[in-house]
């Protein structure tokens, strides 16, 4: 079952490479928003325990953080990576306590995994507190 998922991921990256940045991000967001949800798969404060891209796809468990990580990995394996600032950010809503695991691109110009659509900072709730931010360098993604 791993091979079809890996093949789908490769196709997604190829499609994203053929598009402009916004369209590529829309395809990536849509793809990962449609995977089955698994609660409590990854811990946001233990990035050293996060799986590499191939393990993540192989294990096929996607909590909200795992979906965000999959989006980040996917963007990192496209031509767009070199032209953008890219972070994985974890926010907590002060009023509801809900946590958001988002992909923050170009200072909030594009935000993935906040809702079903790509948004920007204007569309985010105002009572969010940043808990943690991970850059590509923090996650050592240049080793892939």
Describe what this molecule looks like in 3D.
The protein has 144 residues and is of the alpha+beta class. It has a single domain, classed as C8orf32 fold (Roll), CATH 3.10.620.30. The chain has four helices and four strands; from the N terminus they run H-H-H-H-E-E-E-E. The protein has helices spanning 2-18, 21-33, 53-59, 64-76, and strands at 86-93, 99-105, 110-112, 128-135. It has a four-stranded antiparallel beta sheet. Helix 1 runs antiparallel to helix 2 (21-33), helix 1 (2-18) packs across helix 3 and helix 2 (21-33) packs antiparallel against helix 4. The relative contact order is 0.17. The model has no long low-confidence stretch (mean pLDDT 93).
Tell me the total number of β-strands: 4
Q: How does the helix and strand content classify structurally?
A: alpha+beta
Oligomer: single chain
Q: Give the neighbour order of strands across the main sheet.
A: 3-2-1-4
How much helicity do the residues have?
25-40%
In total, how many domains does the architecture comprise? 1
Amount of beta strand: 15-25%
Shape summary: globular
Quickly count the helices. 4
- Just name the CATH architecture: Roll
As residue ranges, the low-confidence spans are none
CATH fold-level label = C8orf32 fold
Radius of gyration: 14 Å
Average predicted local confidence, pLDDT:
93
Order of helices and strands: HHHHEEEE
Biggest sheet, open or closed, and with what strands and sense? Answer: 4 strands, antiparallel
Distance between the termini: 23 Å
- Please identify the top-level CATH class: Alpha Beta
